[in-house]
Amino acid sequence: MAFKKMSFLCFLVIILSFLKPTSETHHHLRHRLSAAAPPRISSNPATSSRFQPHISSSVLFHSTLSLPTTSHAAASGGGEWSLLQESIGVSAMHMQLLHNNKVVIFDRTDFGPSNLTLPPGQKCRNNDEALKTDCTAHSLLYDVASNTYRPLMVQTDVWCSSGAVNSNGTLIQTGGYHSGDRKIRIFEPCDDFNCDWVELNLNLTVPRWYASDQILPDNRVIVVETTDPKEENNLYPFLHLLPDGNLFVFANQRSVILDFKNNKIIREFPVIPGEKRTYPATGSSVMLPVKLTGDGFPAVEIMVCGGARGGAYIKATQGKYVKASKSCGRIRVTDKDPNWEMEDMPMGRVMPDMLLLPTGDVIILNGASKGTAGWECADDPVLNPLIYHPDEPEKEKRFSVLNPTTIPRMYHSSAILLPDGRVLVGGSNPHVRYNFTGVKYPTDLRLYGSDSIRRSQPQSGSGSSQRFREVQRALPFYMHHMRDPQ
């Protein structure tokens, strides 16, 4: 199989089971093993002949980028950026959309004060690694509808943590750094001002850093961390829950299907050609839209884009920035004999964010064209988002280049899709501390987004136009159920 000549790789899997389910996900280099355990944890070793897993005041801007929803042969230059907030005081390292149209935003806590003060009467943090007493917020709750926000109290360091959202909408965030590396945090959405981060008394059994989390069909959360003592590029693996209930796991250049119920690898895929793809050679991935035709089990296709060459991180720490990967790979994991279908983006990109749009297309944005993830480890930001049209039969017509932003989105930046079709973009801090002057890429506390669905005027008769109309019809129903799950 594909891994016979590859170096040893292990991954640690912990499955968390909560009385009240919850979940979310993702950054820096170093590796330790972590696990998690509210009321119940199952932790067992899974083995394979070759793949051996061990399961045991700053500025915030919110802009809107209007993405074209015309035919997928659309000309380059679409999209519109607009500002929502000038400052939220926290760089958006992580963002998570909640079911009530609010977004939890947070950053690490070990760099010193943020630019967002805690409200009067709020107890300050006294367990900080950088300050004896920290009375600033490192998290906030952003209300999309009103374009307002309020500070939240995250109690321990969430740097390099991961999480997922469970079926009742609760965010579970696991692991982190320093005093937060074994923590389990939950955030239950509310429509008043009473909800905030809660840290459970029960900790993870081992530290967890650079893991990835995924909600499972039974509402438990699986936490996966991948390691390889001979290879640096294995952190923050890509996870995709498949329609058959098994888990697709991708790290570095390798991928498998994990049967987590029976603790075994049931399939290994060919190595993806080209560069490394996971942290610090950070690429991104999506599961392309699954088409339910009624003709048996649906085909499932995973797409991975961007990354960096092996050794690029070490060179970046020495000030030598290697060109990022231009390639994307698609693999149909349900095929009998699957192989990667490769194609090139218009430009190379490391640290991209990939999101599925309601039209079925993919937006790729943020990141740099040289270097890797990590402190001061990248150069030459990529300012133009891309739209990828997966159903376009001609490869040369699948990518459309959108209008550029003026804001570099480097290390510790993020992007999420909002219920109304906009894309919210924020963060960027390639420095150990917040640094706004005298550096090439200042810390950015602004938040941007995109108005791709509602404000675009699709051409009649195109495939994207039909998808646009279907989304328009579905949005009122979708938004109603976002507000009222009952």
Total number of strands: 29
Helix content: under 10%
Low-confidence parts lasting 5 or more residues at pLDDT below 50?
Answer: 1-8, 19-75, 453-462, 464-486
Radius of gyration: 21 Å
Q: Which band does the percent of strand residues land in? A: 25-35%
Amino- and carboxy-terminal Cα gap? 48 Å
Major sheet strand order: 2-1-12-11
What's the overall geometry? Answer: globular
**Could you say which structural class the secondary elements and strand pairing correspond to?**
mainly beta
Main sheet properties: 4 strands, antiparallel
* H/I helix tally: 2
Organism: Rehmannia glutinosa (Chinese foxglove)
Domain Glyoxal oxidase N-terminal: 93-224, 225-447
Keywords: Signal
Protein name: Glyoxal oxidase N-terminal domain-containing protein
Brief summary of the model shown:
By secondary structure, the protein is mainly beta. The protein has helices spanning 312-317, 463-483; strands spanning 10-17, 40-42, 94-97, 102-106, 139-143, 148-152, 162-165, 171-174, 184-187, 198-199, 212-215, 221-227, 238-241, 247-251, 254-259, 264-268, 284-287, 301-305, 327-332, 341-344, 353-356, 362-365, 368-371, 378-381, 386-388, 399-401, 413-417, 423-427, 447-448. The strands form eight sheets. The protein has a four-stranded antiparallel beta sheet with strand order 2-1-12-11, with no helix packed on it. Strands 3-4-5-6 form a four-stranded antiparallel beta sheet, with no helix packed on it.
